[in-house]
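Entry under discussion copied across for reference:
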Amino acid sequence: MRHPRLVEFDATLKRLFDSVNDELEARYGDHYELHPARPRHGTTSNRAQDGLFNVGASFTAGYGSRLGRGYVVQVDMVTLANVPPQVRSQIEREAVDLVQKKLAYYFPHRHLTVERDRNAFKIHGDLRLGEV
């Protein structure tokens, strides 16, 4: 059983990432061929399952991290094309910037931010669930 506020938080986070995904698709979606098994952007009910990008995050308890617990931002490109490392870095940076800009809109009553934590970007801050 999952805490109802966690379910709500995760759903809001998913909407945020879907909006970032849509913006990345608009900017870069036609720059690289999709993986042959991947549907075009917007043709499925889940942005993680179509288009060039899959933007999301995984929760981490933050052991050994200077930032502690949070969500590690993941930006995956689903293509067989050779994408130069500097282009991947640029796209990841743009995605992180978009996430940072959208956090206040999607989570107006929380103080959340995105920072580099070693070799990853992490959303951290007010992750409390409150009382049920």
User: Anything to note?
Assistant: Helices lie at 4-28, 85-106. Residues 4-125 form one domain. The chain has a mean pLDDT of 92.
